[in-house]
Amino acid sequence: MPTFPENAPADISVATSVTATDLAQLAEVLVDCVAGGASVSFMPPFEHEDGKAFFTKIAGEVARAEAALLVARVDGRIVGTVQLGLAMPPNQPHRADVRKLLVHRSARGRGIGMALMTAAEDAARARGRTLLVLDTALGDNAERLYTRAGWSRVGVIPHYALFPDGSWCDTVYFWKQI
Which backbone phi and psi does 122 adopt, to 5 degrees? Predict the structure, then answer.
């Protein structure tokens, strides 16, 4: 498990392309989050190659302008990421979905999640989006982060998904006008 310098600031950027090194590092973050119990769509066994396959798909969406991929780097290494889903129906050109806010467990507690969310809002605004929507696990640290960031809670759907250990995951939906 990699470790990251505690006081090093994160450099947040919007990926315009995704390299093989980026894919490997993004996969490492995703694998770490799943191993840590995050309900982010994947179930064990979830290996590095599974993570690379997922981010290869996202890289294609980025290339087609269907998504924006934001990454947080510390000392040049990816420690976090979030996506904007931009491929919306014709009657929703003003909206984007925030997807997969992920921060490597060894880099948490340093404001990287909040920095990624602020950058995602800026990236959405730059693309003419004025309404953002997301969902997260009830009681998760991310739920508290979204509340602190000014997101409005819509409600909870019980038993919406599963955690990696197979237990039920209630899901909270949020929105934010930007």
Answer: -60, -45
Query: Is residue 1 a part of any domain in this protein?
Result: no
Q: Which two tokens stand for residue 59?
A: 């890289």
- Counting every residue, how long is the chain? 178
Q: pTM, whole model, 2 decimals?
A: 0.94
Task: Give the three-state DSSP class for 174.
Answer: strand
Assign 3-class secondary structure to 64-121: CCCEEEEEEEECCEEEEEEEEECCCCCCCCCEEEEEEEEECHHHCCCCHHHHHHHHHH
Express each pLDDT in 121-163 by its tens digit. 999 999 999 999 999 999 999 999 999 999 999 999 999 999 9
Range of the domain at 118: 11-177
Q: Which among 71, 84, 83 is positioned nearest to 25, based on CA atoms?
A: 71
What's the domain count of the chain? 1
Q: Assign residue 113 the CATH number of its domain.
A: 3.40.630.30
